[in-house]
């Protein structure tokens, strides 16, 4: 097997810019959520609103989420070492997964508790609902600032890749902007639910509406936590690289005259903007061992040059008609080669 062990000396400007904007997005969201959490907690204690207290817990959970995302951004950037020869890129996915768990554990569960306690418990009298309205209005404005920053980043990066936002979010390898966008979207919807709960409580005199709003906030947070958890689970397990990149790598290898066939091509995300490429290739039989070695080195360098996300390349010379290898490839992909 020919192996390329050299790493890129530094990130491209696009990568650096993306990483810096992710940090800005997370810092802005964290500061906003911390301020809002304090305001909501005070308003919740004054009004006695379960929905408002649930929203306070929601903001606290979001604040912890930003702390975890900042940890992810910092720790995943460490260089490779003897213990972790492929680097620490996947650590970003680990901390982002914990962020999703935090949203569910500290946000959704508290909202469910407050909601069911209010619906099935003794009726509670509402006090000073105007305070709740004012705090919700301020929170909506502040959350909108954070949400717009996350939306701006996601939209710009999706346009740069000539993709719809939905496709970009499905294939994204940096969980930070997606997490902030989802949690801020949930925060804005949660504020509207809390407003409705307080308003209906004031109009009807029944605290059941307040409790139902709290339960709805819990369902919302649980849904967001599930979506983010599923995304980070896939990244942490080891997801294939962007299909566009995979097809590009295959086209590049297919175009090499010394290659008779690309028998198997595997890729895996090792972190944000870090892709591992493993290819089993049937080289021309006329190549000498020395020519084969130099060709593998040149191909690895070419792939890293053409695809900036490719950081590791492994090329294995194989015969295309080997029955065991063919069975392995077919077992993974079926009759259709990816």
From TrEMBL:
Gene Ontology molecular functions: monoatomic cation transmembrane transporter activity
Chain positions covered by the region annotation Disordered: 1-20
Source taxonomy: Bacteria, Bacillati, Actinomycetota, Actinomycetes, Pseudonocardiales
UniProt-listed PANTHER family: HUEL-CATION TRANSPORTER, PROTON-COUPLED ZINC ANTIPORTER SLC30A9, MITOCHONDRIAL
Residue ranges crossing the lipid bilayer per the database entry: 24-50, 93-113, 133-151, 180-200, 212-229
Cation efflux protein transmembrane domain segment(s): 27-236
BP-aspect Gene Ontology terms: zinc ion transport
Xref: Gene3D superfamilies: Cation efflux protein transmembrane domain (1.20.1510.10), Cation efflux protein, cytoplasmic domain (3.30.70.1350)
Pfam families: Cation_efflux
Organism for this UniProt entry: Amycolatopsis antarctica
Topology within the bilayer: Multi-pass membrane protein
Localization per Swiss-Prot or TrEMBL: Membrane
Name of this chain's protein: Cation transporter
Keywords for this protein: Membrane, Transmembrane, Transmembrane helix, Transport
SUPFAM superfamilies registered for this protein in UniProt: Cation efflux protein cytoplasmic domain-like, Cation efflux protein transmembrane domain-like
GO cellular component, one term: membrane
Main location per the UniProt record: membrane
Record field: compositional bias (Basic and acidic residues): 7-16
InterPro entries: Cation_efflux, Cation_efflux_CTD_sf, Cation_efflux_TM, Cation_efflux_TMD_sf, SLC30A9
Signal sequence annotation: none
Keyword Transferase: no
Top-rank taxon: Bacteria
């Amino acid at each position: 097997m020919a192996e390329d062990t050299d790493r890129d000396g530094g990130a491209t400007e696009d990568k650096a810019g993306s990483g810096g904007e992710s940090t800005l997005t997370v810092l802005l969201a964290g500061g906003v959520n911390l301020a809002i959490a304090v305001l909501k907690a005070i308003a919740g204690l004054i009004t006695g609103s379960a929905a408002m207290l649930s929203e306070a817990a929601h903001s606290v959970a979001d604040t912890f989420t930003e702390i975890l995302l900042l940890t992810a951004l910092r720790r995943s950037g460490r260089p490779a070492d003897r213990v972790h020869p492929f680097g620490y890129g996947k650590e970003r996915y680990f901390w982002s997964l914990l962020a999703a768990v935090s949203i569910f554990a500290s946000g959704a569960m508290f909202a469910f508790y407050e909601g069911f306690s209010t619906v099935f418990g003794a009726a509670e009298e509402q006090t000073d609902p105007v305070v709740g309205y004012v705090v919700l209005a301020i929170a909506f404005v502040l959350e909108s600032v954070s949400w717009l920053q996350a939306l701006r980043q996601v939209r710009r990066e999706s346009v740069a890749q000539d993709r719809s936002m939905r496709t970009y979010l499905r294939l994204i390898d940096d969980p930070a902007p997606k997490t902030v966008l989802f949690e801020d979207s949930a925060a804005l919807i949660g504020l509207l639910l809390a407003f409705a709960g307080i308003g209906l409580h004031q109009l009807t005199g029944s605290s059941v509406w307040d409790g139902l709003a709290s339960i709805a906030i819990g369902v919302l947070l649980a849904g967001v936590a599930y979506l983010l958890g599923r995304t980070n689970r896939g990244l942490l397990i080891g997801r294939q690289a962007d299909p566009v990149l995979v097809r590009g790598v295959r086209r590049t290898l297919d175009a090499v005259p010394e290659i008779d066939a690309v028998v198997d091509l595997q890729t895996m995300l090792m972190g944000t903007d870090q892709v591992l490429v493993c290819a089993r290739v049937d080289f021309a039989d006329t190549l000498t061992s020395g020519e084969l070695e130099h060709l593998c080195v040149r191909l690895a360098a070419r792939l890293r040059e053409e695809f900036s996300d490719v950081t590791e390349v492994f090329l294995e010379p194989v015969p295309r008609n080997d029955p065991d290898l063919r069975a392995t490839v077919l077992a993974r992909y079926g009759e259709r080669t990816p």
